[in-house]
Amino acid sequence: MEKRALFLALNLLTALHFLLFPALSNAQTKGRMELDGPNARIADYFDVIAGTSTGGLITAMLTAPGSDNRPVFAASNITRFYLDHSPKIFPENRRNNFVGTITNLVAGPKYDGKYLKSLVQELLGSVTVSQTLTNVVIPTFDLKRLQPIIFTTKDGKSNVSKNALLSDVCLGTSAAPTYLPPHYFETQGSDGKTRSFDLVDGGVAATIL
User: Fold this and answer.
1) Residues 87-136 pLDDT 10s
2) Which segment of this protein is annotated as the motif DGA/G (predicted)?
3) Helix (H, G, I), strand (E, B), or coil: what is residue 132?
4) Does the CA dihedral 119-122-123-125 come out positive or negative?
5) Tens of pLDDT, residues 173-202
6) CB under 8 Å, gap of 24 or more: what pairs does 27-36 form?
7) Do 42 and 62 contact (CB within 8 A), yes or no?
8) Are the beta carbons of 115 and 52 closer than 8 angstroms?
């Protein structure tokens, strides 16, 4: 019998479910993890983990290797991560109303994204897309090219210019228009040419169903 690939998709709704109801998420996988012991991680059970926006950040957290070559975060730690850091990523200000929304469209994003940037860069360090512990698929949208750019572990291994820092990919896919600024970064191809990216939330063009 042909082996079936196991695929975990994290769009906004499933990511929220993952955060709000961690005990109910992937009950079958959770049962297997309990049997396999405290060192078992979500990345051990899925061939592909995909996510955009918040789901992209969770995807990275579940698959990025730490110094012991195991995932940086256990699934059970992610809810606490968001509870601890969300107030600093999205601090309250005066633009929480209709007028504020219009202001966002004219004057720029509601939040400067500086805290999120420093947090993600510290968390993921120099890990690149090709180094994830299982295959990932993280959609983004490039404002200059006006087209989706999808980062995958497979592409990262075969195309140097797509082997971006995982932190850059996360900051790109989580840059929701009007809320966080676009994320710009560069990579270098095998031919020495520089490739630039101006990315926002992948959900603009490609959500994970």
Assistant:
1) 888 887 645 555 555 555 556 788 888 999 999 999 999 999 999 999 99
2) 201-203
3) coil
4) positive
5) 999 888 899 999 999 988 889 999 999 998
6) none
7) yes
8) no
Measured distance CA(56)–CA(80) in Å, rounded? 17
Sign of CA dihedral 60, 62, 67, 68: negative
- Three-class SS state of 135: strand
**Catalytic residue among 53, 130, 167, 174, which?**
53
The single residue of 142, 168, 174, 201 carrying the catalytic annotation is 201
Rounded CA-CA distance 166/151 in Å is 9
Cα-Cα-Cα-Cα dihedral sign, residues 156, 4, 140, 79: negative
Phi, psi of 125, deg, nearest 5: 55, -130
* Nearest by Cα to 175 from 149, 141, 127, 147: 141
Cα distance between residue 209 and residue 67, in whole Å: 33
CA gap 99, 105 in Å, rounded: 10
67 carries an active-site annotation: no
